[in-house]
Amino acid sequence: MRKLVIGVVVVALVAVVAIFTMQRQVGGWLFERAVQQRIGAQPVAYGDALSVGLCGTGSPLPNPDRAGPCNVVIAGDHVFVVDMGEGGARNLNLMGIDPARVEAVFLTHFHSDHIDGMGPLALMHWTGANAALPLTVIGPEGVQQVVDGFNSAYRQDHGYRVAHHGEVIVPPTGGGYRAVSFPIPAAPQVVFEQDGLKVTAFPVDHNPVLPAVGYRFDYKGRSVVISGDTSRSASLEAASNGADIIVHEALQPKMVAEMTGALEAAGNANTAQITRDILDYHTSPEDAAKSAQATGAKLLVLSHLVPPIPGSFFHPAFLGDAAENFEGEIVVGEDGMVFTLPAGGDTIDRDERL
Ligand SMILES: [Zn+2]
Ligand SMILES: [Zn+2]
Fold it and tell me: Which of 10-14, 78-82, 165-169 is predicted with the least confidence, judged by mean pLDDT?
């Protein structure tokens, strides 16, 4: 027995020494395998279903594990995103959802954290899809100004890419964005319909940010609502009746109050005031739960988390009394989660892509 143990230890040591003396070769081989697996992988598909994935669950507060606000909706073969915060396009890629497949971006409002990942998405879409047309951005009035700004900022880059890769690889008519705006809705209105998918925009309360909307996606009897940024919203509750899943923003006031106190104690009155200001136009987990209960949703997914929480150990502290206000399940969103609603069924399937 003793000889066997010694033998195993010696073999393990030799293996470790071999790996490190051949680190260059082993690394090259592992990289080659990973590239083949990754680049040759089949596109992510969930069949005839409506899926919602979290390509960013963060907020403007920095968190290395969370990209800015970003949701991906897959209806059958069609891929859409709702908001594109910083790091969202990178996350899509890492989730195995090729940004080139995105057919349109829906914007809930024009706060910087919801649009600041749009530059990388446009580039990945254009170069990856060999796209001859700019990517469509659908949003309430004001979206044209956002699109004009991005197109202007990236115009020189556009020229460099065409000059370097050629017009066949990156068609000069593609790249950047084109805006499709709808009037600021006073009530729910259908803003997009295609192949059984219906997208309805509804107003939410994010004053003084105007316009601010949420979106409801309906596909073959299944439905997902994305709140955008809002305080507890009666119009969201009315527009979300009977939805399967509500992806709702959430801010935990007790945790934010801790931050306010610490900022004041540190003499940072400026940022302390900002942490007080944000309380009135976001929703606590408890209120998000009450909204979900009012709609009859099966699943409440919290996203756009404020403050940034570092891991699942902190979920109960973040949730507070939310569970007492909702009979369904509450999930604290993490980047990479995907929830799938098979067409015509009543199940909710789950996938983790990061
Ligand atoms: Zn936001
Ligand atoms: Zn906002």
Answer: 10-14
